[in-house]
Amino acid sequence: MGEYESILYDAEEEVGWITINRPERRNALSRQVWAEIMDVLLKTEDDIGVRVIVLTGKDPSFSAGLDIKEMSQTGFKGLADFLGILLDPNEILMRYPKPMIAAINGHAYAGGLELTLFCDCAIASEKAVMGFWENRRGLASGVAFLFLPDMIGMRFTKELLLTGKIINADEAYRMGLVNKVVPHNKLHDAVMEMANDMKMVAPLSHKATKKWFFEGRHLNPNKCIGSLWETFWELFHSEDVIEGFTAFMEGNRKPVWKGK
User: Fold this and answer.
1) Catalytic-role residue among 3, 14, 91, 134
2) pLDDT digit of tens for each residue in the chain (260 aa)?
3) Fold exhibited by the domain 7-198
């Protein structure tokens, strides 16, 4: 896939690991980081050899958020233009058709924590700490408003955004912000275990499910129902649905998915 300057990319057992690789900047999200993450997502979107994507950071941080140093060089009056470059990546993240897991290995602040909200599931190291600290700098967590109320409820959303406080992994789990908390040295194994469970599901089923989640939030009910039936019809006539039922009839063997 080529070499990257600000991230690492490795494929392991059909699981693509994207690691933000700027530990000297606490893995701050620069323009380059965003561009390289998007490049991986676009290149893997139709690659049947990649079934699940994992987002993580080079220890000891996941990501401290947007690169304040880079932002300041544009002049804070140009901040809106700087943030505008995130519109396309946000769209790509929301529409990405494969499961995404956030492996939160350390600090996840502001935009770094918001990045995890685009992921379908999140597993946190016991060392992880997180929060929307930009709210204490005169900004507001726009992406959080889109996802958090459904994810953790309105009360916890308001608590996090109106205080900007930092919470530990256990509190994040209690709120529902992460799926589970594991010992730091078990994070990789826990993520791979979840990814392997996800790989049991057909690629087209993943694509349909994520499409329904996205459209269910953005379409009116009538259009959403129409989209559901259209996609279900496509699944019913796919090679994978034949393979899935054939595998079940043949002693419930493991299906061999083609994504077709």
Assistant:
1) 134
2) 668 999 999 999 999 999 999 999 999 999 899 999 999 999 999 999 999 999 999 999 999 998 877 776 666 555 556 556 566 678 889 889 999 999 999 999 999 999 999 999 999 999 999 999 888 877 778 788 888 999 999 999 999 999 999 999 999 999 999 999 999 999 999 999 999 999 999 999 999 888 877 776 655 556 656 666 566 657 666 777 777 667 767 677 778 777 77
3) 2-enoyl-CoA Hydratase; Chain A, domain 1 (3.90.226)
**Active-site hit among 114, 159, 171, 230:** 114
Q: How far apart are CA 147 and CA 156, in angstroms?
A: 12
Question: Catalytic: 114?
Answer: yes
Whole-angstrom CA distances from 231 to 19, 198, 207, 219 are 33, 20, 10, 15
At which residue do the structure tokens 């929301």 appear? 94
